[in-house]
Amino acid sequence: MDEGKDDGAFTMIDAILKCAVWVGHIPWFYKLNVMLSPIIGNRLAIMQRQGKLLKLAHEEIQERKVRGSDRHDMLEQLFDVQREKPDKLDDISVTSMAASNIFAGSDSTSVSISAFLYYVLRNPDCHKKLIEEVDASAKAGGIEHGSVFTLEVVNNMPFLQGCMYEALRVHPAVGVNLGRVVPPVGMKIGSQHIPGGVNLSPRMCLLAHTDIM
Q1: Which of 34, 130, 195, 206 is the most exposed place for a label (fewest CB within 10 A)?
Q2: What does each C-alpha distance from 53 to 11, 71, 74, 102, 207 come to in angstroms?
Q3: What is the C-alpha to C-alpha distance for residues 127 and 117, in angstroms, rounded to an integer?
Q4: What is the pLDDT of residues 69-111, one digit of tens each?
């Protein structure tokens, strides 16, 4: 960020997300690629996550352990679980989860926030109503200007919640279909009955708040 350019991290993350499509829909292809990688190389970036990204996560984790921290962030929560269940969560598992959060969170979080801001700002009435709810919640909770809202407060802001869900519905952060098999008893989506055993590929199942935007 200081240099204002990508040092290769985003290019790597982009390649990893593309390979996730192959792994997600054709799991056996992962093992095949691993077997053939000495011959064909890492053409589909399937091994990218086990390379530079995993190394980056490992280095950051080791640095945190040495210097310590009073932050109770996601990594610290993983450490908490590891201390409680060392036989269930070893160092390799912690490193793998940390690496997953680097490439998964960087894309889905940025896409979701961008979509939320775009749709709210392009609708003046929606923007005004949201600001009014934020101000009212801050006043009711005695929250000073510039302070961070707690999750409890945010969860009790219906219009904000509606805006977030609608932004995710209109512009889902998930870029690939999420394959699902309908249970044997079947299911009903709206007025449509889906027979059991049918393969569905929904991008994201969210309630539509069409009266908000």
Answers
A1: 195
A2: 11, 23, 17, 8, 35
A3: 9
A4: 787 788 888 888 888 988 888 888 888 788 777 766 677 888 8
d(CA 5, CA 39): 33
d(CA 19, CA 10): 14
As a whole number of angstroms, the distance between CA 47 and CA 16 comes to: 8
Confidence of residue 159 (pLDDT cuts 50, 70, 90): very high
Domain boundaries, the chain: 1-50, 123-213
